[in-house]
């Protein structure tokens, strides 16, 4: 009887250790996934802000005559943007 109890205790201990291990590994995997998603989002934000800054600088250089959608220099174009096909205002 005593021996069986001890075996049961060992089994419960093993199960508890396994569950704790799975929890820790799961948390670590989830944390790492969140880190990757966060890093990807940060990289995307940096690229988006950089592109926006480039477009606005290009717009200033072209004296405002740029495509509103893609920032293409429209000083030599009329009607439609040759880059993205958007309609341009009649300057
Ligand atoms: Zn365009």
What distinguishing features does this structure have?
binds zinc ion, 91 residues, 0% strand
Give a brief outline of the structure:
The chain is mainly alpha-helical.
Characterization of this structure:
With 91 residues, the protein is mainly alpha-helical. The chain is built from one helix and no strands. It has one helix spanning 2-61. The model has no long low-confidence stretch (mean pLDDT 88). The protein is rod-shaped and about 95 Å long. The chain has one domain (1-64). The structure holds zinc ion (ZN). Zinc ion binds next to loops. Residues 67, 69-70, 72, 81, 83-84, 86 line the site of zinc ion.
Distance N terminus to C terminus?
A: 96 Å
Shape designation: rod-shaped
Main sheet overview: none
Domains (count): 1
Residues in β-strands, percent: under 5%
Low-pLDDT residue spans: none
Helix proportion of residues, in percent? 55-70%
- Can you count the beta strands? 0
Helix/strand order, N-terminal first: H
Ligands in the model, by name, code or SMILES, are: zinc ion
Mean pLDDT: 88
Rg from Cα? 30 Å
Structural class: mainly alpha
Figure out the total of helices: 1
């Amino acid at each position: 009887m005593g021996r069986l109890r001890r075996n049961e205790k060992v089994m419960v201990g093993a199960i508890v250790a396994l569950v704790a291990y799975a929890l820790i590994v799961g948390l670590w995997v989830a944390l790492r996934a969140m880190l990757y998603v966060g890093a990807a989002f940060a990289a995307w934000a940096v690229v988006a802000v950089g592109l926006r800054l480039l477009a606005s600088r290009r717009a200033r250089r072209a004296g405002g005559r740029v495509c509103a959608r893609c920032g293409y220099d429209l000083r030599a174009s009329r009607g439609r943007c040759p880059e993205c096909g958007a309609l341009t205002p009649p300057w």
